[in-house]
Amino acid sequence: MVAEAFEFVAVPFNSDGWGPPDASDVSSSASSTSVAAANLLPNVPFASFSRSDKLGRVADWTRNLSNPSARPPTGSKSDPSAVFDFSAFAIDEGFGLTSSGGNPDEDAAFRLVDGKPPPRPKFGPKWRFNPHHNRNQLPQRRDEEVEAKKRDAEKERARRDRLYNNNRNNIHHQRREAAAFKSSVDIQPEWNMLEQIPFSTFSKLSFTVQEPEDLLLCGGLEYYNRVFDRTTPKNERRLERFKNRNFFKVTTSDDPVIRRLAKEDKATVFATDAILAALMCAPRSVYSWDIVIQRVGNKLFFDKRDGSQLDLLSVHETSQEPLPEAKDDINSAYSLGVEAAYINQNFSQQVLVRDGKKETFDEANPFANEGEEIASVAYRYRRWKLDENMHLVARCELQSVAELNNQRSFLTLNALNEFDPKYSGVDWRQKLETQRGAVLATELKNNGNKLAKWTAQALLANADMMKIGFVSRVHPRDHFNHVILSVLGYKPKDFAGQINLNTSNMWGIVKSIVDLCMKLSEGKYVLVKDPSKPQVRIYEVPPDAFENDYVEEPLPEDEQVQPTEENAEGAEASVAAAKETEDKKADEAQA
Question: Residue 556: what pLDDT?
Answer without folding.
Answer: 43
